[in-house]
Amino acid sequence: MGIKVKQLVIFSLIFLGHLICGQTVDSKIKYMKKYAYCNCVYINNNKLDVTYLNDKFQLSDKSENLFIDLGKISDKESIKIREFTEKQTKDFTVIESSYYSETGKTNTITADCMNFYESKELDSYIKKLVGVASKKKTKK
User: Fold this and answer.
1) Is-contact 112 92, C-beta < 8 A?
2) Per-residue pLDDT averaged across 109-128, rounded?
3) Overall average pLDDT of the 61-76 stretch
4) For residue 110, is pLDDT > 80?
5) CB-based burial of residue 45 (10 Å sphere; 0-12 exposed, 13-18 middle, 19+ buried)?
6) Does residue 113 form part of some domain?
7) Is 96 within the bounds of a domain?
8) Do 36 and 126 meet the contact criterion of CB atoms below 8 Å apart?
9) N or C: lower Cβ tally within 10 Å for the chain?
């Protein structure tokens, strides 16, 4: 009886340790996509307005760092995500918004970046980067 209890305790500790410390592939993908979204907003707002970097909110917002830490995103992965984001969203500042603003030129960068975040292209790229094969629909 004592051996079974010890085995159960050891199994429980290993299982709970994995739950607490282990990161699922899905959570890594989620944080990588959020990191790409933050990059999209930053890159495109900075292209549109160079004073964006001088904004106190922007300087103190460390969301990108948070997603890197939570997602355990490596430097190599971070660079690849930024490069992909820049390539995919390069025209976001060129798109003319139909919305009026008394302050001058308007944009829909945040909305465009949200669409990018939810896109199949980003999802496929991140899954490929992590090494997860995309599930393809099969014809029956």
Assistant:
1) yes
2) 95
3) 89
4) yes
5) buried
6) yes
7) yes
8) yes
9) C
